[in-house]
Write a structure and sequence with these properties.
This protein is an alpha+beta fold. The protein is built from 11 helices and 11 strands. The protein folds into 2 domains: 200 residues, Di-copper center containing domain from catechol oxidase (di-copper center containing domain from catechol oxidase); 182 residues, no CATH class. Strands 8-5-10-11 form a 4-stranded antiparallel β-sheet. A 3-stranded antiparallel β-sheet has the order 7-6-9. The chain binds copper (II) ion. Keywords: Copper, Melanin biosynthesis, Metal-binding, Monooxygenase, Oxidoreductase.
């Protein structure tokens, strides 16, 4: 049966420098395929853009109503706007290491919810890099329109795969109850209680009920598997779990691991000091912001500035947030919603995110601008060169972004000899408030 051989491809955007560039199959206007008559033919590439029939001015908001195809990083929002695929490709090369290191960090999460929220952030960067933001926002950036871009399924199939791999590695971790806050959507109002038995419209389980997270805890219930989730290929569940953990260590270890291992294998005397007894100092930025009244879409870009050429400044990481952010002002004035907001604001910890700095610091070591990864060298370096900027786009509320706090922390990390074993993080982190105090 054809259905037995049906595949939905995924694109692993989290491979970082081990992977390919932004795939050509998304950016070339024409595709050559074998037609129904068995002959090769050239057709408009269905992964390049989607053609509306035409865009509906009654259903679509401005500016999307006037554009008749999906666009990536368009030249404008006029009817004759064009995609800038070269900008998407360049964007991916800029951000892929940060996405990879973010996903690597997510895989070390102690809870399912922590993994899910970190994965959400880094998949948001893919929306950002393929969509771009105002004034050049394309369909993929705008949550309400992103599913029209044909890369939507291929990008999200990989998010689904990464979640399935985390679940396989951590079978006891699962959805813990939490409040949706202001991230509600068409079906789930803001400030709803989210939990593993919550029906998830519009996904029907049968004619009467919607699937709940518990119904689909294992993706095989839905009749599919990823290369890494074919548990039936292993004699026991334990063997399968070991294999998944090996894949996670191979594909999603922080990029600094590969760099440091290669440098130490080369034994170059100028860089061997970076790994003392197979241990190095890992550096991250932690951001915190109050959860309420955030712009629904924004990114914060972190840079090293004032560098001694050739580039004076380089981006070292982003924090992207992209939610539907329906702001229902009528519902907001309602008593119970206001009460929910108050109790939510009272009970929720700040929204947190981490960005890895270690590979960007290693770049500076190799460029001769920084001596080592030790605090004695890194703290003065970051105090001098690290800055950040919040970008919300033209029609987004600045909201509470002024209250963002940024902190730099270090942790000692050991690299095991066996590349299929995960990095070992010390349980203790050291904060350096002096690095970010001035901003
Ligand atoms: Cu998405």
């Amino acid at each position: 049966m054809a259905a037995d051989a049906f595949r939905i491809p995924y694109w692993d955007w989290a491979l970082g420098q081990q992977g390919e560039e932004f795939p050509d199959i998304f950016t070339t206007p024409l595709a050559t395929v074998i037609g129904p008559d068995g002959n090769q033919q050239t057709i408009p590439n269905p992964l390049y853009q989607y053609q509306f029939h035409p865009a509906s001015s009654s259903d679509f908001e401005s500016p999307w109503a006037q554009m008749n195809t999906t666009l990536r990083c368009p030249t404008s929002h006029a009817f004759d706007a064009e995609s800038q695929q070269q900008m998407v490709r360049a964007h991916y090369m800029t951000y892929r290491r940060g996405i990879h290191d973010g996903v690597a960090k997510a895989f070390s999460s102690a809870t399912y919810n922590a993994f899910a929220s970190e994965l959400e952030i880094h998949h948001g960067t893919v929306h950002f890099l393929a969509g771009c933001m105002d004034p050049y926002a394309g369909h993929f950036w705008d949550t309400e329109y992103s599913a029209f871009d044909p890369i939507f399924m291929i990008v999200h199939a990989n998010a689904d795969r990464l979640m399935a791999m985390y679940q396989a590695a951590h079978p006891n971790n699962w959805v813990e109850p939490k409040n949706s806050g202001e991230t509600g959507n068409f079906w789930i109002p803001n400030f709803s209680n989210l939990h593993a038995d919550l029906p998830m419209p519009p996904f029907w389980k049968d004619g009467q009920n919607f699937y709940t997270p518990n119904d689909i805890r294992n993706v095989s219930v839905l009749g599919y598997a990823y290369p890494e989730t074919q548990y039936w290929l292993y004699p026991t569940t334990e063997y399968w779990r070991m294999a998944v953990n090996e894949s996670i260590a191979r594909y999603y270890s922080p990029s600094a691991r590969g760099t440091l291992t290669a440098l130490s294998d080369m034994g170059s005397s100028s860089t061997t000091h970076l790994l003392a007894d197979t241990t190095f100092t890992d550096w991250i930025i932690k951001t915190k912001t109050p959860v309420l009244d955030l712009p629904s879409k924004f990114y914060v870009v972190f840079s090293f500035v004032g560098l001694p050429s050739p580039e004076k400044s380089i981006e070292v990481g982003t924090w992207t947030r992209q939610t539907t952010g329906r702001r229902d002002t009528q519902a907001r004035s309602h008593y119970s919603v206001n009460r929910n907001r108050r109790s939510y604001a009272h009970n929720q910890p700040d929204l947190e995110n981490t960005i890895s700095l270690t590979s960007s610091l290693l770049d500076q070591v190799m460029a001769g601008n920084l001596k080592s990864l030790s605090a004695a060298d890194v703290v003065p370096y970051l105090t001098k060169h690290l800055t950040w900027q919040v970008i919300t786009g033209k029609d987004l509320i600045q909201g509470k972004m002024q209250d963002i706090t940024v902190e730099v922390l270090s942790t000692e990390v050991r690299i095991p000899d066996d590349p299929t074993q995960a990095l070992e993080y010390s349980s203790h982190s050291t904060p350096y408030p002096e690095v970010t105090d001035k901003q």
